[in-house]
Amino acid sequence: MGKSVTKYKYDDKDFLIQEDKSTKSIGKEERVNYKYSDKGLIKEKKTKYYYSNTNITLTYSYDDKGKLTKLFEKSSNGVSSTTLYEYNDKGLLIGDTWESSLSKIKHKTTYKISFD
User: Fold this and answer.
1) pLDDT mean across residues, the chain
2) Where are the domains of the chain?
3) How confident is the model at residue 48 (pLDDT cuts 50, 70, 90)?
4) Rounded CA gap, 88 and 69, in Å?
5) CA–CA distances in Å: residue 80 to residues 5, 32, 92, 101, 110
6) Are 25 and 44 in contact, with CB atoms under 8 Å apart?
7) How many CA within 13 A on the CB side of residue 38?
8) Could you report the per-residue pLDDT of 87-116, keeping only the tens digit for each?
9) Which of 8, 66, 9 is nearest to 42 (CA)?
10) CA 1 to CA 31: how far, in whole Å?
11) Residue 29: per-residue pLDDT
12) H-helix or E-strand containing 26?
């Protein structure tokens, strides 16, 4: 394994907009591009994996309070998944539901909140 180098690029608001990762032995490994909403929340993360010629795009959706409500992941090979997030009335994450385009079976996770 060779020396790994990551180069970062920022916009004029100091938001990270690009990462380029490479190694001496492999060369370019991946490029990650980020897009943000007007409120400064990440709305898209697109990763290109050079060694496998694959792209993965994550799309983020939020409610009016800025809480993540949905994460959609799509690969250039056609596989996708969706995660929906649930919050209680205090704004704490209490669960998520994940579904893949491959299985179509929803997987529910419930989080127990304790302040003991």
Assistant:
1) 93
2) 34-110
3) very high
4) 12
5) 30, 18, 27, 5, 22
6) no
7) 1
8) 999 999 999 999 999 987 899 999 998 887
9) 66
10) 19
11) 92
12) none
